[in-house]
C-alpha cells in the first residue's frame, strides 16, 4: 500500500499553521485510496497529537534535528518517504517548503509541482498557476513519487476527531544551517499567510500616510499589510510586504487595495483573493475590473472612515 | 572565483498569455531575460569584481533564440556563455531542467552556482535547489544578502514574517531574490565586447520529462463586482456588504 507523506514546518519550536492545510489535502487523497497520512517534522518541535490527528494525520514522526538545514531536512524527508512507502509527498508552498519540494524530488529521482491550488485525487493531477497566475496548468508527475507544495488558503485541515500516533526518528545531518532567525517587528501576520490583507499603492501619496492603512488593519483581527512595487521601490515599505509577480502571492478571504491601479504584475499576486475591495479616485482604474466592491474616492479620506466603521463592529 | 550563472529566456511579465496545445502561444509575445536571473548575473559580476579574479560562465537551457539573452548577459560582463539547446526546452518542467543543467555541470569547475529564485514562466522555484541536490552541493534559496568569507557563505533570506541567516560552505548554489542588488545595464562597450565573447551552442537531449501538462487554462473569470459609491459616504454600505453579503467580516 502506498502512503501520503506530509512535511510539517515549524519555527522556534512551534508548528506553522500552513502545515495543517497540507494535512487536510493529504487526508482527502488518502481516503480516496485507502492509504495512510504520515506527517514528518524534520526538526524538533512541540507537536499536539490531537491537533495533527484532527487535521488529517494518522501517524506523526518527529525528527531530532535541533535547527533547520534545508539539505538535512530534504535528506530526512527522502529517507522517510522511502521507509514509509510514500508515493505522494506534500509540503506548504512557503520559502522553506518550496526549497524542500525541489530537493526531495531530486533525491527521489522524480518531478515536482510547486504552489498547487487544487488536487484531483482521482486522476492524481495537480493544478498550479504559471506565468504569474495568467494561466493554470494541470500536471501529472511521471516519476515514482509525486512531490508537491500547496499554496496557502487553498486547502483546509480535515476537521475530524482523531489523535495521531507520535514517534521519533533520527535526522540526517546537513551542510547548510540556519544560524539565526529574527522575527519582523509589528506582530502582524505575514502578508502571504494572512486571511485578510489591506494593501496600499502609490495613491497613498506618502509613507507618512501609512498609519491610515494600519488603523484599518488594526480593526480587523489577523489582518496583514501589503504594498505595490511602486511603494516598495519608493522606499515607503519593506519588500517583505510587496504583493505581485516579483513579490508575494496571496489569496486571502479579503484584499483591500487602496490607491492601487491594478497593474498586471500586481494582479498576478492577488487576483485569486476571494473578495477584493478597491478604493481609487480614478473610476477608470483597471483594479475596478477585478474588484468585488469598489469605492471611487480619495483613499486618504475613505480609509479613516473605514477604520472607524470597522471599529464599531468590534471584530 | 569561478561562477556559473544560470539564465532563462521568458515571456515579459506584461505579455498577454494565450494558450495553444496546452502551452503558451508565443505569437506576438515579447521575450526577456528572466528578471530574477538579472539579480544572479549582477551578484556574480560583483563577486568577481570584489575578488579581482575568476570567471563567469552563463548557461541557459533553451531554444535557439536564447542566444539573444545570453549575448545580453555577456554584454553585462559574463566571460563565456553556453546554450544547452533543445527546441522543447521552454516547456520543460523544473525537475527536467535541473537534470539537464546538472548533467552539463559535471566536469566544470565552480565555486558558486547562481540562479534566480524562480523563472517567471513556470514559477516552480525549484531549479536551483534541484541542481544543487543532484550535484551534491549546498544551496541557499531566495537570498537578499550574501557574504563570502574563507570558503564560507553567509546569506540572509526572508521567510514568512522573519529573516533568517543561513551558513554553508563553498562550492554552493544560491538563488537570488529581489533586494539582493540592482542589476546593471549593459554599456555600449559591453555590447561591443559581447560580440567577440565565446558563445557555445551544445545540442542536448531532454529524455523523458518528469512532469506532463495534461491541461492548461486561463484563470477563471472573476464574477462581476460593483461600485458601492463615492468617497467616505460609501463606507457604511461597503462594510455592510462585506459583513452580510460576502460574509468575510
Ligand atoms: C518585471 C516587473 C515586475 C513587477 N512586479 C510587480 C509586483 O510584484 N508588484 C507590483 O505591485 N507591481 C509590480 N510591477 C510594477 C507594476 O507594473 C506597476 O508599476 C505597479 O504595480 C504600480 O503600483 P501602484 O498601483 O501603487 O501605482 P500606480 O500605477 O501609479 O497607481 C496609483 C493609483 O492610485 C490612484 N490614486 C492616486 N491618488 C489617489 C488617492 N488620493 N486616493 C485613491 N487613489 C489614488 C491612481 O488613480 C492610480 O490608479 C512590476 C513591473 C515589472 C516590469
Structure notes:
Chain A is an alpha/beta fold and 315 residues long. Chain A folds into two domains: 3-169, 3-Layer(aba) Sandwich (Rossmann fold), CATH 3.40.50.620; 196-313, Rossmann fold (3-Layer(aba) Sandwich), CATH 3.40.50. Chain A has eight helices and 18 strands. In chain A, the strands form four sheets. In chain A, strands 7-11-6-1-4-5-12 form a seven-stranded parallel β-sheet, sandwiched between helices. In chain A, strands 15-14-16-17-18 form a five-stranded parallel β-sheet. In chain A, α3 (70-83) crosses α4 (95-107) and α5 packs parallel to α8. The model of chain A has no long low-confidence stretch (mean pLDDT 96). By secondary structure, chain B is of the alpha/beta class. Chain B has a single domain, classed as Rossmann fold, CATH 3.40.50. Chain B is 27% helix and 33% strand. Chain B is built from six helices and 15 strands. Chain B has helices spanning 35-51, 67-76, 94-105, 127-135, 188-194, 235-245; strands at residues 2-6, 9-11, 19-20, 23-24, 31-33, 55-62, 80-85, 112-116, 139-149, 152-159, 162-169, 172-176, 199-203, 211-217, 226-230. Chain B has a nine-stranded mixed β-sheet with strand order 11-10-9-12-8-1-6-7-13, with helices on both faces. A two-stranded antiparallel ribbon of chain B has the order 2-5. In chain B, a hairpin with a 2-residue loop joins β3 and β4 (23-24). In chain B, α2 (67-76) crosses α5 (188-194) and α3 (94-105) packs across α4 (127-135). Chain B is globular, with a radius of gyration of 21 Å. In chain B, 48% of the residues are buried. The chains are: A alpha/beta (315), B alpha/beta (249). The interface between A and B is large, with 96 and 84 residues. Bound molecules: flavin-adenine dinucleotide. Flavin-adenine dinucleotide binds at residues 201-203, 205, 228-231, 242, 244-247, 259-261, 263, 265-266, 269, 279-282, 285, 298-300 of chain A.
